[in-house]
Every structure is written in C-alpha cells, then in structure tokens.
Amino acid sequence: MIFMYIFETYLDIRQYGALKLPSLPKQLEGVVSHEKFEKSKAYSLEKRFISSLSYFHFIHEAVTIVMDTSILYFGVLPWFWKKSGNFASHMGLNSENEIIHTLSFLAGVMVWSQITDLPFSLYSTFVIEARHGFNKQTIWLFFRDLFKGICLSILLGPPIVAALIVIVQKGGPYLAIYLWAFMFVLSIVMMTIYPVLIAPLFNKFTPAYMYGFFKNKRIVLYDTLIQQCKNEDEVVAVIAHELGHWKLNHTVFSFIAVQIITFLQFGGYTLVRNSKDLFQSFGFDTQPVLIGLLIFQHTVIPIQHIVSFGLNLVSRAFEFQADAFAKKLGYGKLLRAGLIKLQEENLSTMNTDPWYSAYHYSHPPLVERLAALEDLESKKED
User: Fold this and answer.
1) Of 8, 61, 145, 242, which is the active-site residue?
2) What is the mean pLDDT of the chain?
3) Can 242 be counted among the known catalytic residues?
4) What is the pTM of this model?
C-alpha cells in the first residue's frame, strides 16, 4: 500500500509539472482560447493539487494512507470487530450470530467513513467546485443526497451481506462458483433496477440516458451537455459516439471482463478462506466471512492496481473505436467540435502527463482523441 502511494504520488508530481506548462498542446492552439486555458489550468491545479489553505489532494491522500496503515498495523480491525460484537449484545441482539455481528461491524465502519470523508467532500464541493462555477448543490441538497445514499445502503446492504455469509458458510468445494453466480445475478438485477428506481432518487429525468438491459434500457443526455453544445448537430455527434459503444458491444465486453475478474477474485479468496495464519497475522482469533474478504482484498492490492491499469487501456481503446464509429457516420468534424466545447466548458485538463494519463484515465486525453480523428481524416483523403 505504501509503495503504491509513493508511486502514485510520483505520477501526481509529473502531472503537476504538466499542468504548470505555460502553453496549450499544439492540437489545441488556435482552437481553445487563452482565457479558457488559464481557467482550466487553475481549476485542475486546485482540484487535484492546490487549495487556498493546503495541498488538498496530497493531504487527502496522505491522511488516507496514514489511517489505512495505522488501522492495519495497530490492530484496529480486530479491536473494532470485538467492540461491534459487544455493541450488538448491549442492544439485545445475538452477537454469536455472524450475520448480526457483521452488520453491527459494517454500521460502525459506515459511520466512521462518513465522518472522516465528510470534511473533504464538503470542501471539494462548496469551496473548490463553487469557486470555479461547477457546484449546483445547496448544503440542503448535499446532505439530502448523502442521507438517501445511506438509506439505500441500509436497505440493500444487509440482505446482500447476509446472502454472502450464508453462501460462504455452505458453499463447500464449489464456493467460488456460487459466489460468482450470486454476484452475476445481483449485477444484472442492479443494472435493471438502477435506471428505473435508484437513479431518479438523485436526479430529475426527462426522456433520454443509455443504460440498462432489455426493456429497461435508457438513453440519458445530461442537461449540461445540451447547454454546452448549442449546436444540435454536435449533440447528435456525441450521441453517435455513445451509440458506437453499443454497436461495437463495448458494454458487453466490459461486463464479461468484470465477471471473469470477479470469478478469479473469488477463486483466490477460496484458497485462503480457511487459513488460520492469515487471520492471525491480522490479529483475529476467529475467521469471520467478511473479515476474510477484507483481508484478502488488502493482500491483493498490487494485483488490483495492475488489473485496473489493464482495464483502463482497454477502455481507452474503446473510446478511440467509438470516435471512429461516429466519424464513419459522418460526424467527425462535429464530434471534434463537441469534444472541444465540452473540454472548454468543463475546464478539463488540457495538458496531461502521458504516464499519469495512462495510469489514471479510462478515457484518452482530448489531444489524443483529436489526433486520432485527424489520422482517420488523412487516411480517408489518401
């Protein structure tokens, strides 16, 4: 974890240097105004690196790594596990029941995470975002959405956690298959009900959105897209790009890849599920299901970073393909104009370090997408 923190901080420093460059990339010279470039640079620097009070991003990341490392090193997890069992007993619940004990533990974790993350969320939303004109929330809406999210967790979390515990307890030699099958069904259900039941709790929708399966598919256009692309043909060009993802089965491929990775993760978990040494090395004298999953996730963090990097590379390739699809439909120039306008209006980063971009971005930077569109245009002319 510490090594990954150091490596990612190094990438942040590289990106900081790119953001401090005084001029636009060549592809954007004469296209993006100097005023927009300066605003984008100021916003990117403040959001990612500098605030008026501190180096916001660096402090947030440093606090996170210190807390996570301290929790592991000082045995906070086993201590908190025992305390959550005592709390459940104090409330008149049967803490010997692993499901009840686990839910008590998760309730405490949720409270702790909300408390520790709230100051950073408030500062990011109501100071940094507001300063650059992006915050559309009032403090009331912020806490209302936070409350809705907590309620959803309370409603959906317990049955899912209970099912996972029962599956692990009774899974036997085919545990990995049962866990994967459960998560597969759950993901299908969530993708089906999300656009119909969950998304409308946080946003107001009029017909549009592309999401979901079968009859529950939705096509959504964010109001900001419509406002920023005043030319309707540019909006159509952006939709052509999104339809390219559908036509080229990118969603299906991504879904299958996630299912394979999920199955491999559960397979790895089953190999260490009954390892007393693993639990004891983290300070546990029992082997709770949820704790086993948490410990396993910590031990495979380096692999998760590598997998995430690989998925980013695939996602970036998909974006180029979707752009090419829109170009093939005759929307190349309009897509180019739409992407530039969105980049300007959202104050997105103009200069990006290639290492930082490759590691963090699931979408290629604008300059790379424009260069790819230009290459397609030149090949067409040849």
Assistant:
1) 242
2) 81
3) yes
4) 0.71
